Description:
The complex is a heterodimer.
Chain A lengths: L2 H38 L17 H6 L3 H35 L4 H8 L1 H4 L2 H11 L6 H8 L15 H26 L3 H9 L4 H29 L3 H6 L11 H11 L3 H25 L3
Helix pairs in contact in A: 1-13, 3-8, 3-10, 8-10, 10-13, 12-13
Chain B lengths: L3 H5 L4 H8 L4 H22 L37 E7 L5 H14 L2 E7 L1 H13 L7 E5 L3 H4 L7 H6 L13 H8 E2 L2 E2 L2 E2 L6 E5 H4 L2 H11 L9 H11 L6 E2 L2 E2 L5 E4 L7 H17 L18 H14 L11 H10 L3 E6 L2 H4 L17 E4 L4 E2 L5 E2 L2 E3 L3 E5 L6 H11 L2 H9 L15 H4 L2 H6 L4 H15 L3 E3 L6 H17 L5 H19 L1 H12 L4
Amino acid sequence: MSPKTIRYSEKLYARLLVLPTIIVLIAIVVFPLIFCIQVSLKDYDLRMPPPYPFVGAANYVKLFSDDRFIASLYRTFLLVAMCTTTQLLLGLGIALMIYYHLERIRKYILVILAIPPMISPVVVGYMGRLIFHPVASPVNYILSQLGLPAEIRWHASPSTALLTVYLVDTWQWTPFIMLILLAAILAIPKDFVDCARVYGASFLHEIRYVILPLIKPAIAVAVLFRMLDILRMFDVIYVLTYGGPGTVTEVVTFYAYLTSFNYWKIGYGAAMSWILMIILTVICMVYLRLLRL
Amino acid sequence: MKPLYRLILPSTNVGEGIMSKGVSPKVLIAVVAIVALIVGIVIGYFIPRPAPPAPPPPAKPPAKPPAKPAPPAPPVKKPFAGIKIRVLVHSGHQAVPWYKYADKIKELYGIELEVVESPPEEIFTKALLGIRSKPAKYDIVQFNTAFIAELAPYLLPLDDYILKTPGEGGVAFGDILPMFRYGQCYWAGKIYALTLDGDIFFLYYRKDLFENPIERKLFKEKYGRELEPPKTWKELLEIAKFFTRKKGEKLCGQPLKRDFYGVVFQLKKPRIFYWYLFIYAPYIAAATGKRPHYFDPETMKPLINHPAAVEALKLMKELLKCMPPGVLGWEWDECFTAFMKEGIAAMTIHWPDEGKRAPELAPLPIPSPPKPKLGVAPLPGVIGPDGKLYRYVFVDTAWAVGIAKYSKHPDAAWAVLSFMCSPRWDLERVMAPTDFMPDTGHDPYRFSHLFSPRFLKLKPWFKEMVHAYLEAAEEAEKGNYFTLLKIPGAFEYLETLATYVHAYLAGEIPDAKAALDKVAAEWEKITEKFGREKQKEYYLAMWKAPG
């Protein structure tokens, strides 16, 4: 056999071995996606008897005149902006603090800080309900001990409900960003930092010109993960506020859930999910292009 | 050594031919493996399955009901031996009795019971899709009767079984309390479901507080009447205001150890509509002089933004001032805890759980509290312009159970259902938790439950509830009951109501009329979507009297 024949044969062999995986992937990933597109193009309302009429892009068009959807989209982006910014700044701060000042007890701190991201969001939602309980909130107690206003109703008040969701999410996910950034900082060769110090770099210069540029990819990944997670946030809101009071904490995923599984308008809910998915994809592409990753 | 492919393809011309075209042995093995896999799958899919054992012909009900229906004797033979009945039930504690009785059902009828659990939020979708297919995926489904309109076309009317089976198959339909019979089992005049869980709402109040002489004296001085459980919503508001006191103020002549509230409701968004509808129903009835309605039955125009409905919502906001702060975020557990476990409220409106668990009532938060005592009363009403008291029993749609129309074994399914819903066995369910039956979450729904000596011996405090149940039954028999909406889109109507009522109470929408106008506009859209005439038909069917 010629070398060319062998190469061809090996390639074919490799492809054949991968084929079952591709078939399974098509069955469990591609098929539901296509089915979801198909459903989103129909007036698929479970409360109506089948068959469900094809309505083309009507569900998509309707979305843009649905005030509740637009408001939920706005809230979703507001949460993304608030949570990602805070969690990045806090996570970076904690990672730097551990790197510079808490080296000796690092492993103990890491164990503790790794707990929140490991907890199920449903449990976190219930914890949030207790911690920010409108009457018996330990947070209010601490605020009162500090002489601060302590009559906050947290998730039961329209003015503070979204803030409560933001605080709960920040509590859970800041350590996640911190862990990624700390791992990246620890991977920087010591020589780089030492070299900067020898050349008289101040503490801020060291961070600005040595650490931050070197951990930029890690920051990008951490922020991307969090953005996508927050855009898909559901469990905490379901347990903590159920989208209320009124609709002040209703995000897109929650509204899509209500539409699909409470109103049974599956087609409309599917269209909503696709819009969210398109937004997610565009964000990812723009973000990765901007960062040249 | 011979390569493996040589064993499969010994040196034949075919094999050499393939090899000469450059296909390696590895490729051959992979091809053979994949072909074998595909063939296996195809054969596995198309191979004829062993047919289930043919069911014996079901016992035909007699053409005429016997003159004297004898109590059903336990079947000697196993009439449905080998039949499998699949039942879709609410997951968790509500599924317990199905497992518990599975052996007994097998022993009596030879039926193998397969229990499929589903979380409550998914049960409608599963039930609908499951019973719509032919043959039905589930023979029996548990469902919330709010969805009866959507499910009814695929459910088997049970009238024939009840009318023609000796002893009604043991279900003693007439023994079911009227509010559940009319509010849950009937749809468009036919019986589609049997009650599993007797959910109804009561007003609970602290009898120890209402009977306290100091409080009674103070109340009489302030309002010029005796302190009694409220009969109207205005009275309830007055009493709630009277009892709302800060920590350190006096209650029963003693300083309060913590803030105390007149009333507590469960006002988190998903289920707030109940508490609004408790007030709405008598208000709208008093204003229109008819039984309460969601829509004008003639035109299907919503009544939800009627001036009386606005008044009801404003009263609800007034009541909010007499409730613990943050109550808009409270679900069942917070409401129960505040009233029963912490004892920080004078009144509440809730399901029968408080009554079933009366001994758990906490003492009042004062240094020397009297012995805790729970009182129960019907929901308040409204005095109309005609001077009449409009007061309604509020029946929750709650959990019922029905048989799929396309079930392969409807008679066997009836055997299971009539066993589960027979007074003999369902008493155990509603008495739970007991040594025999772990907690099921099912509340009483029969006359025989209320008067069961066993039940009352086991839970003597329930005697207090019996009177309230009987009063409710009497009112329901007169037609003075109001039930949750049961037309297509019921949940969307109610969820919309919940959203805007919550938004108004939370201050997101400042005006009660504006909030209810939004609800009405949304309701109109939903009605239009389903078709006004069709919805009207369903709406009338919802209230249609049996027969």
